[in-house]
Amino acid sequence: MRLVTISDIRAAAALVAPAVLRTPLLPCPWADDDRPLWLKPENLQPVGAFKIRGAFHALARLPEEVRVLGVVAYSSGNHAQAVAYAAKRFGVPAVIVVPDTTPRVKIDATRSHGAEVHTVPVAERESRARYLSHQRGSTLIPPFDHVDVIAGQGTVGLEIAEDLPDVRTVLVPVSGGGLISGVAVAIKALCPDARVIGVEPALAADAAESLRAGRRSSSWSPALRARTIADGLRAEPSELTFAHMRELVDGIVAVSEADIRAAVPWLVHNSRLVAEPSGAVTVAAYLNHRDELPPGRTVAVVSGGNLDPALLSELLAE
Amino acid sequence: MRLVTISDIRAAAALVAPAVLRTPLLPCPWADDDRPLWLKPENLQPVGAFKIRGAFHALARLPEEVRVLGVVAYSSGNHAQAVAYAAKRFGVPAVIVVPDTTPRVKIDATRSHGAEVHTVPVAERESRARYLSHQRGSTLIPPFDHVDVIAGQGTVGLEIAEDLPDVRTVLVPVSGGGLISGVAVAIKALCPDARVIGVEPALAADAAESLRAGRRSSSWSPALRARTIADGLRAEPSELTFAHMRELVDGIVAVSEADIRAAVPWLVHNSRLVAEPSGAVTVAAYLNHRDELPPGRTVAVVSGGNLDPALLSELLAE
């Protein structure tokens, strides 16, 4: 199995530059003195999440005669928007298959980019996407299980390494593992003293269990993982992303639902950022699990900011 | 009267770099096709507002033997936080005089930076600040009526010109006029085809009246201006900032209270940014006064993001 390299990520950075915001590191004046914190606000991307990096890169890497036939994606939401937006930028058709539990704000945003959206039961989304891809001759863009997608997400890590070369800890949300795999490749190549630590909901803590076991765990059913409010963190790593994580990730922190819910208003009031629960888990880890984190300069990746207005109001009222 | 020059602003940019975030321009996928929009999110600065630029620059320009005696500021809030934060960065004492109508969140944030805060009736804030400055031998840092403050705020315009050289319209909130004066100097020097348009609340539309009259208007009492929810836009230009505006600003758009209130949740849901009402007026102008704006690439400066949590919840519920 070929793992992504830092050269892949550097090449991806050049390809995605026209469509991806180079997000700044935001210093947090309210951080610990011995563990200064910067946020990497991927919620400020045009689609509201880091997913635009991998999706745009995957489309950019398709031969033009293939790309023009269109793309298909299945996703819990942000990848859907990202593929739809990338397809619009390239002027090619996109079909998106989303589970019927997806927040409406994400479906509306996907449609607003001109994509054809199919809503299906969560267990059928991959098979439906494969069927549509076959039927139309279009290319399936997987949400994380692809080297081009991982290399695109890795540009987050490349930017962190360029902007804060003496970073000691990078906190990254973990779901399917595309983001943390790419970030870990970049950080380990460029900042060998830094640790890359994943964060996942305690209610969907399959990655930690798998890393402890040394193989992908199968004890976390989709129904179990669906309990967390962090709807973007309910997927499981693939063989490809798990291989990256086993080699490169230093640890996983699990955060409670209460801490995730509190991190959303914390970011609103302290950093003027709107993050979705999945995007706020790294801040939840920083605020509540400091004893599990090494000292030194810390970056928390805030991975996305798409949440239903009603949920945001609910979380702000708690 | 000496006006600020582009050389002053370039020098300021070098001096403020250690403390000021170089904010990115955020493209807005939901903008008009004939008037594409980028946001300049100054609410992401460490103190939550552009004011850090002018305040840090003013302190940086003081001779060290003067700076160590400390600084004094009077402000409706964000300038207070900015001076307190800049003083902490330089390790010198700060005394801040704020009107008793200042939102608690701004007072708490100012104290959290180690400043001594004095709360007084709004009409007394300048006299109290001058008294404290005289009593302690410390330097008064005015919120806008100073070339160093204007040059610092002008770094916002310098960054816009560098990042989007073919910008056609820059929308800037107007209160005392420090921000728009500095931005206009930079934009007119570097992008001579671009227009700089101020935005103010219709309930505090003194700048438009003054520009029409060709002299500073006196028909807007503090009590009248206090009616707007945009608590950062209740000041009036000084002779110095008015001289800049008369020479360099192309027009003023007035926005209603309803449009200001709606712009705050709009930014939350569409751009994942928390802006205070004063910071959201430019987006209110873009959304509701398109017929008053030229076509072409447009930048809206989102000047700040400090608002009481209760007010944010109220605006999100409307």
From TrEMBL, chains A, B:
Gene3D superfamilies, per database record: 3.40.50.1100
Record-linked SUPFAM superfamilies: Tryptophan synthase beta subunit-like PLP-dependent enzymes
GO molecular function (one): L-serine ammonia-lyase activity
EC number: 4.3.1.19
One Pfam family hit: PALP
Domain Tryptophan synthase beta chain-like PALP residue range list: 17-304
Family annotation (CDD domains): Thr-dehyd (cd01562)
Chemical reaction(s) catalysed: L-threonine = 2-oxobutanoate + NH4(+)
Similarity section: Belongs to the serine/threonine dehydratase family.
Name recorded for this polypeptide: threonine ammonia-lyase
The organism of origin for this protein: Umezawaea tangerina
Lineage: Bacteria, Bacillati, Actinomycetota, Actinomycetes, Pseudonocardiales
